[in-house]
Fold each of these.
Amino acid sequence: MIETMLMVSLVLFSITISIAIIRIILGPSMPDRVLALDMIGVNLIATIAVVSIILKTKAFLEVILILGILSFIGTIAFSKAIERGVIVERKRDG
Amino acid sequence: MKINDVILKTVTRIVVFIILTFGVELFLSGHNNPGGGFIGGLVLSSAFVLLYLVNDIETVRKGIPFDFKKIAAIGVFLAVGSGVGSVLFGENFLTQAFGHFDLPIFGVTELSTVVLFEAGVALTVVGVVVTIILTISEDV
């Protein structure tokens, strides 16, 4: 029973990631693409968690932490590039 | 234009310490578990990159007054030095040794010279990655 539920959730996660990839390619504006990238990151984290439940292992938990950190930093960098046009400033003026 | 980013700064103040702790944990868990100097250094450098993103270069340089190019050079020196050290004992280059020691607090602990090599690798990765990020983000 639980195996079937996990498999179904994996299929649904992959469908979600494909929809987000379509949004990255088509996306009319830049914030759409950034949101779709963030969504792919969250779905990848959930997928890895489900896979580690299926395989009954604890080896992937560090992967989850690293993916969370990297998608956090990536989202901050993208939104800062959209909002200010520069990612790392030399001297902030305010 | 002044932008209000109180939430980002407050979150970053806590998250940076979590990332640094996780990087050190990854560095120490190498050799038996997933981890090691390289990815530990990458996680540490991602914490520094987050600091540079949220604050600006001048502020971070005031708090962390290191030249990251020199840190990379020190790391390479440490890594090569741990290899040359084995030559002095008549072994091959980069031969590593380990042993079990009875320490006062930790009990019987396995100490190894691989940690020196991994520390060199971690310092090199931190220095090189932060230097690359700061160089390609230069807008002058």
Note: Chain A touches chain B through 21 residues (CB under 8 Å).
Amino acid sequence: MHDAIAETAEGLKLPLILRARGGLHARPAAKLAQEAQRFAADIRIESENGQADAKSMLDVLSLALSQDAALTLTASGPDARAALEELADYLDSLRD
Amino acid sequence: MARALFYGTAVSPGYAIGSVHLLHAAGMVEKRRIAPRQVAREQQRLQAASEAVREALREAMGKVPEDLAEYREVIAAQMELARDPKLLESASRKVESDLICASWALDETVNQLCALFDKMEDPYLRDRAQDIRAVGLRLRESLQGGRAAVAPGDACVLVAEDLSPADVMDMDFSGVQALVTAQGGPTSHTAILARGLRIPALVGLPDVLGAVREGDAVIVDGVGGVLLAGPENDDLSRYSGLREEYTAWETRVRAAAHWPADTRDGVRVSVQANMERPEEATEMRESGADGVGLYRTEFSFLRNVLPGERELLEEYGAVVRKVAPARVVFRTLDVGADKMMRAQSGVKEPNPALGLRGIRFCLRHRHIFRTQLRSLMRVGVAGNVALMLPMISTLDELLTVRDIMRDLHGELAARRIPHAETLPLGVMIETPAAVMIADALARECDFFSIGTNDLIHYLLAIDRNNHQVAYLNEALHPAVVRSLKRIIDSAHREGIWVSVCGELASDPYGLALLLGMGVDAVSASPRFVPGMKHMLRRLDAATCMDLAYNVLMSADISASQRMVRERLQESLGSELAFHTTSILHSHE
């Protein structure tokens, strides 16, 4: 799935579909922010509801991501690729 | 201050006299302008506060008992919030751009974020504003030099916006005489904590924070649901008398809580507890309840994620094991399309009380209902389980559920999953239609449970959200009294038992009337159980039967009220005042 990472002017981009049952609620949003903070790269999540800083649980929550929402993760910085792979794996682990 | 009364919801009974201690110094944000050279220092203070709050939350987390997974979840989210870049960076930027101190910048940021979340359509996300506020208050306190600790032995009344799980874990409540919160309801953390500590608590007093100050003398009436600020000498002497009598009465009542409730003439009524979360089981057992007469199953469905079978099994299994060998009566999912989680993308109904709710919703959304029934049947082998169906209005609904359960039995048996093939199946009598066909329903089910709150609304055609018609809510209305009698008689004619799980069961006047009509079991919030048992022991079933007869014959509500009041005063004397009543409005 990480083959889908594309290089663009704004950084690396990875489109994906959120499979978490019932959408992204507080606990996974907190965990996602925690994971994201381990990277130096600037990481953003984009959905049709807007875009958010992946390191901010509040920002991520305010996107009100529902199940099957289409997202794009964007990262720029030294460890951008590792960050995208890690976060995509985490989001993928939320399906059951 | 001048004498003033604040009305709220009493969620833990008792009386307290003490001085106000504000948990959070709300409304006292430090608002200081700063010079450009102070910017860096204020930003550092913000960072330090974030770290201190995270440390305090981590410590609180360590104190959460094993079975309170929900608390851990809330605290973990708050720890993440306490270092959230959106929160901290916005505040930090504000310090620099507006040249204001850290507290002020933080307060503005928190308010903006809360306003954002308050406006959200999803109720789950809207509730996150509470977490942001709780963390915001902690950060502010840390910036202002930390939280004032409650000195044990202080006769204080703790007043707060709300109590969050972290507050509950990291505070010493030994000197606290009562809890009062602006927010919250009967199932809030405040309520559960207060009942555990056996101190009175009031919730839902939005104006109280603006009105009282640290150290003000107040009286908390946890029976009548009133906070009295600025008491006069008369108030103080009256309430210290009441407090003394109440404490003596409560000690007697508690001491006998685990004994059966037999009336003076030897009629035994089973007194059970209503519950909605597994962690209430300890309180339930301590109350002396003879089982759980109503377990509400909505709680796990009202989040934005539908619970899976494994999650339900875990919840129901925990309850059943903790209550065993006594019985747990589970009420199947009782939600309307209006309240249902966003996973179901709720339909807007103009009149949800008459809409697709209770059993109607479950039979329409079979996959949800089947998951719940399957979980209950599987838990049936772990303890003493019964289930009951809400909002029944036709016989067909009951028969359809029996069909589904037969089908699930086949499915589970084929997969060799241990389960109870059948479970005692009851019907909740809440609609006028169910009252009229009670005889037919009684032939097809194992017990009745009367949900008096909804029954009264539907019988008298009143919208519970419309205050204009609230005056009609009259439990002693002949239509209500006659219906109760009809339901109980129909059940007994078919040899099935009847339980009452609405507010009427814990009301002293309602309880006497129900006893007189021959009800077999009553179920109420655990906090009322010892008092109800004590009262039943002081009553006489034959006298109550006579009372019920007279009330049934009466077409005049105020005459009925007079009759029950006089009869109860004769039997109970001054103790009557210690029971909370909602059906007699004018008791002098």
Note: The two ends of chain A are 18 Å apart (CA to CA).
